[in-house]
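Tokens for chain A. Residues wanted.
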């Protein structure tokens, strides 16, 4: 059973790591990370029966003890006098607040000394606590590739200069936004699908997005990212049904959406959209805002959504085929399934292993009345995903298709399709 303390770990782990890195230096990143992991294991064993009054202070103190133990037992390090000098004269006094620590760790992992791919992989591991498999799934790359990026990033980070300090003009903004976006995406569509949603990761993504917006209040892309994660979280109460069953957007009970979060996201968009440059996160937030503003599925402005996806595809220079897939879904709602299926054929020729392409094809074929072709596409979609919740959803659609024949289904539920 999940203990109350476990919900804190994803928030406390990066804060504790940032505190140790601030104290002992970025060249000791590996040692600091190992010490935090050992402290988390100690917490797992002890907190269930003896929870501390101040979990953050407990974790920091335990991680520092573990760090000291590691340094003292490492015979390959410098002589004892130098090690003791390092421990006696840390780089910082550790008095910064938790918000500063979180932003500092984001900045540290997104050091310009690292390539963009290494920045994002390391930050997702250290800040978000994602596994190598989850990061690999997000970028559709082999786990070995991601593991190599993380290892190389930590090695290069240890050789770089002074520790950065958070300031009002947050540096390295683009990779930080990428990290928060992947955190939110993984939270609401987990790699394994068991569970279908990671509530702790969703909460941490919102928490960090708020901190980032506080640090860079004039950035329309930061505001767009915050609006996007708020609007995505607002739909959760209706998106996952009993037993972790996924509920497509058109079938969701919109009265169950969290209106406070939705209204906050919409208010952000109203404040920053006029006159703003169309960045990728702001555009995705605008798409999510159109869904949130529609009182029911039939009232959705699919024409505007299809235009926004086309603009998003242009802004991102066609580098993300999932955006193209979402554009095809939106255009199917406007122009019908025939042109959409032809566009899917072209997309598949360019990206034959694109995740969820067969799921979209199955939905469009079902809408067009081609029952046999739709069933075959559903079977291919089931075979192509390792996500348990998504498999269950696709099998349910396949059963419904067999029981009732082809029926209109207006909204294929693909990752990102809800914006």
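Reply:
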């Amino acid at each position: 059973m999940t203990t109350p303390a476990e919900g804190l770990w994803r928030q406390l782990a990066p804060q504790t790591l940032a505190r140790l890195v601030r104290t002992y230096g970025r060249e000791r990143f590996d040692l600091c990370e190992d010490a935090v992991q050992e402290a988390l294991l100690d917490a797992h064993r002890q907190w269930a029966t003896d929870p501390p009054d101040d979990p953050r202070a407990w974790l920091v103190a335990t991680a520092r003890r573990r760090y000291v133990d590691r340094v003292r037992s490492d015979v390959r390090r410098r002589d004892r006098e130098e090690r003791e000098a390092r421990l006696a004269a840390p780089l910082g006094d550790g008095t910064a607040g938790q918000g500063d620590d979180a932003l500092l760790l984001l900045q540290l992992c997104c050091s310009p000394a690292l390539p963009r791919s290494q920045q994002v992989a390391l930050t997702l591991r250290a800040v978000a606590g994602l596994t190598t498999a989850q990061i690999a799934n997000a970028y559709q790359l082999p786990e070995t590739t991601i593991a190599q990026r993380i290892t190389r990033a930590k090695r290069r980070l240890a050789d770089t200069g002074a520790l950065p300090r958070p300031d009002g003009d947050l540096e390295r903004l683009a990779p930080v936004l990428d990290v928060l976006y992947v955190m939110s995406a993984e939270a609401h569509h987990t790699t394994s699908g068991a569970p279908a949603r990671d509530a702790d990761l969703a909460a941490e993504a919102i928490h960090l997005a708020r901190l980032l917006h506080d640090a860079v209040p004039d950035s329309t892309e930061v505001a767009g990212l915050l609006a996007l994660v708020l609007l995505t979280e607002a739909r959760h109460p209706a998106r996952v049904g009993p037993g972790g069953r996924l509920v497509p957007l058109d079938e969701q009970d919109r009265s169950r959406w969290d209106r406070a979060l939705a209204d906050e996201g919409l208010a952000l968009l109203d404040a920053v959209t006029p006159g703003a440059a169309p960045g990728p996160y702001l555009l995705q937030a605008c798409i999510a805002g159109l869904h949130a503003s529609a009182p029911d599925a039939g009232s959705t402005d699919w024409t505007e959504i299809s235009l926004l996806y086309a603009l998003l595809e242009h802004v991102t220079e066609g580098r993300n085929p999932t955006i193209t897939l979402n554009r095809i879904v939106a255009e199917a709602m406007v122009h019908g399934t025939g042109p959409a299926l032809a566009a899917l054929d072209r997309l598949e020729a360019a990206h034959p292993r694109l995740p969820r392409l067969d799921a979209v094809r199955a939905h469009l074929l079902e809408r067009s009345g081609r029952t046999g072709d739709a069933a075959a596409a559903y079977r291919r979609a089931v075979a192509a995903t390792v996500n348990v919740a998504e498999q269950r959803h696709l099998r349910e659609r396949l059963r419904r298709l067999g029981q009732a024949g082809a029926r209109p289904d207006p909204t294929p539920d693909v990752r990102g399709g809800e914006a």
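The first helix runs from residue 6 to 24. The two ends are 33 Å apart (CA to CA).
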